Amino acid sequence: VSDKMKSTFALMCKFAATDGTVLVCGQSGTGKELIVRAIHQASKRKSGPFVVVNCGAIPSNLIESEFFGHEAGSFTDAKELRIGKFEAADGGTLFLDEIGELTLEAQVKLLRIIEEGTFSRVGGNKPIAVDVRVMAATNQDLSTMVQERKFREDLYWRLNVLSLSVCPLQERKEDIPMLVDYFLDRYATPLGIKQPVVSDKAMDLLMAYDWPGNVRELQNCIYSAMTIASGPTIEPADLPRRIYSDSE
């Protein structure tokens, strides 16, 4: 394991022992959600829900309904009561992925509930109190966005209580064998096969490649190789063409 990941693991253990808000920064595909899930699983909230919100995928007109839920009849398509993400995460963790994608208007609403711990459903008046730990992730530079007035400074400091940066995979290639073993173990059962091994030549290619898609690209590569391999050993020919063409 690389020194960078050893430092990351040490921080994760410390973060799991507290209930503070966590902000994880890093390029797309570096494994930010895996880190947040691991912190949740090691925390006192591990038996509670882990709810994921992709902030970049919510239309701005549905932000309130998505976060807070709505009462039946509160707007045209609201035919029945709907629980929002904060209510669904009560007693557990709410993971706000790609937090930098939220509009400034949505950021105000998010700040209010993080500060107060209460909200009302859309179309309702009754305050609802929740006990939720918020963790967020971004592939953007939020401090620069604050300076450019694209991200609220007060929300930034609310989120950036415990912060952690994840390095790109090409800067910590010593972690590749460990990650490969993890994915081999993870996918063997779903694929209905005995866990294969990776040949030395195939591993050399994996170590030489620069992984622009980071851990997610490695994950997809191993899944593909396990599906294609005809025997108990993954060979260079089982890897995606780009992996070995880069080394030629």
TrEMBL record:
Family annotation (Pfam families): AAA_lid_14, Sigma54_activat
Key word Nucleotide-binding present: yes
Sigma-54 factor interaction domain segment(s): 1-227
SMART domains (UniProt xref): AAA
InterPro entries: AAA+_ATPase, AAA_lid_NorR, P-loop_NTPase, Sigma_54_int, Sigma_54_int_dom_ATP-bd_1, Sigma_54_int_dom_ATP-bd_2, Sigma_54_int_dom_CS
GO biological process: regulation of DNA-templated transcription
First and last residue of the signal peptide: none
Protein name, per record: Sigma-54 factor interaction domain-containing protein
Organism: marine sediment metagenome
